[in-house]
């Protein structure tokens, strides 16, 4: 019988010698990411406005319905993304 293949072994010294993620590039990336998230969340609309049934009415035509959907998606896009993320 042949011998089984050897599994690679990690050298503990090599793992410990890697620097932590503490570079200026990482800080810049994280800062920009958090700023983008904050800016995006600041554009969300009030949830009560999204579910206000008094502002909902049946569209008169398919064209009117499509127009409303486009406007609604643009206006509430941040809210919809938040719901999808749940």
UniProtKB/TrEMBL annotation:
Q: Which GO terms describe its cellular component?
A: endoplasmic reticulum; membrane
Principal localisation: membrane
What membrane topology does this protein have? Multi-pass membrane protein
Is RNA-binding one of the keywords? Answer: no
Q: Which domain of life is it from?
A: Eukaryota
What keywords are assigned to this protein?
Membrane, Transmembrane, Transmembrane helix, Transport
Which portions of the chain have biased composition (kind: Polar residues)? 1-20
Q: Which GO terms describe its biological process?
A: vesicle-mediated transport
Alphabetized Pfam families for the sequence: PRA1
InterPro entries to which the protein is assigned, alphabetical: Prenylated_rab_accept_PRA1
- Region Disordered, as annotated, extends over 1-21
Quote the subcellular location field of this record: Endomembrane system; Membrane
- Stated role: May be involved in both secretory and endocytic intracellular trafficking in the endosomal/prevacuolar compartments.
Q: Would you identify the family this protein belongs to, as annotated?
A: Belongs to the PRA1 family.
Listed name of the protein = PRA1 family protein
Taxonomic source organism: Brassica campestris (Field mustard)
> What taxonomic lineage is listed for the species of origin?
Eukaryota, Viridiplantae, Streptophyta, Embryophyta, Tracheophyta
């Amino acid at each position: 019988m042949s011998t089984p293949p050897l599994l690679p072994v990690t050298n503990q010294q090599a793992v410990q010698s890697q620097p932590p993620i503490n570079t200026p590039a990482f800080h810049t990336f994280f800062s920009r990411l958090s700023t983008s998230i904050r800016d995006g969340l600041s554009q969300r609309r009030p949830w009560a406005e999204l579910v206000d049934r008094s502002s909902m009415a049946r569209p008169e035509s398919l064209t009117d319905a499509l127009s409303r959907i486009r406007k609604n998606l643009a206006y509430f896009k941040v809210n919809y993304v938040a719901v999808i993320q749940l």
